[in-house]
Amino acid sequence: MVGGETFSWRAEQQLDPSTADQRSTFPSSTGCVALTRRTMDNRPVRRRRPGAVRHLLLAAAFLACSSQLLVVDANSWWSLALTPIQRPEMYIIGAQPLCSQLSGLSQGQRKLCQLYQDHMIYIGDGAKTGIKECQYQFRQRRWNCSTVDNTSVFGRVMQIGSRETAFTYSISAAGVVNAISRACREGELSTCGCSRSARPRDLPRDWLWGGCGDNVHYGYRFAREFVDAREREKNYPKGSIEHARTLMNLQNNEAGRQAVYNLANVACKCHGVSGSCSLKTCWLQLADFRRVGEFLKEKYDSAAAMRIGRKGKLELVDKRFNTPTPEDLVYIDPSPDYCLRNETTGSLGTQGRLCNKTSEGMDGCELMCCGRGYDQFKTYKHERCHCKFHWCCYVKCKRCTTLVDQFVCK
């Protein structure tokens, strides 16, 4: 079983994210504590402000600190997907270190970055792959996985422990496993190479095993250490709602990694004279990431509603359902209303979204527009047409323009 493997590589020997400093970094990063102290200590002793004024000043300071804390908490390693990352060897002597330039990393993730700088560009690629797949899977839903900025990436909607948040965590973790595993095979990382997985028992004897495969074992282990580091550093009281959210995130991260690990399969190539298949060489190969996205989308549809129990663990809200496995997604909060724009929840609403007039599914105008109606307009659509193959060897196409109807939610 994947979760039972011993993590014996260099990261665990030098750093265990679960033992990282668990004190809150908010005061030092926001300066709110220092601001309050100056306000209280520097006030003249003989001069007293009216009570109402003092209360207003304290309230303003509290709101300023709260807003800063919200921004800090919203930062995520997902922002690596939207930030260009240069290769470490491109930095000259005296330049600012790579890891100090990357925003959104927790303390443990930053230490891992220092140990494995060549991994960071592929973590960014993995996050980008996860975001794109999320947007594809939800392209016809009211919530379409839109990115809103370069820090929180998805905005305030991620502060709600909904099933959409669960999918986002899982697909992002899956993207990191996918990117790191493939980078190992391509020789881009100094601490890993081709897959060394054991020969499958059901592989025919006359087939060779040992082609350069995707190193999904290494990808899984590194993604577990890096992605989970942020959650394991948190030290919320056991049984609190914050602790429940941490457990939810860890469960969904694992589900994403398990999806990539379990969907990897054996690929083979034939060898022989004149195209004969007298000999085959086989290796371990990652599944197409679209298949991973579809698999996790199915897990999203069947995600389990959970709550924190008396023992400080997540338990099912409805006991009639089966207990979630490590491959399943879980959530603790109901989804917000994605029909209307709401700054508090982070919902962008569906106003202005394209819809399908003839569809009865979620992409149909009735459901997508939440009963508000839709506007119709005409637009020109350009596409390639009348393609012909010319010997040898190219395809020549014409450019066709058609006038089509489009429908937009009010």
Q: Could you spell the SSE succession in H and E letters?
A: HHHHHHHHEHHEEHEEEEEEHEE
Q: What is the residue-averaged pLDDT?
A: 81
Number of strands: 11
Question: Count the helices. How many?
Answer: 12
Q: Supply Rg.
A: 26 Å
Brief summary:
With 410 residues, the chain is of the alpha+beta class. The protein has a three-stranded mixed sheet with strand order 1-3-2, with no helix packed on it. A three-stranded mixed sheet has the order 5-4-6.
List keywords for this structure.
11 strands; three-stranded mixed beta sheet; disordered N terminus; alpha+beta; Endo-n-acetylneuraminidase fold; 410 residues; 38% helix; Wnt_CS; 16% strand; glycoprotein
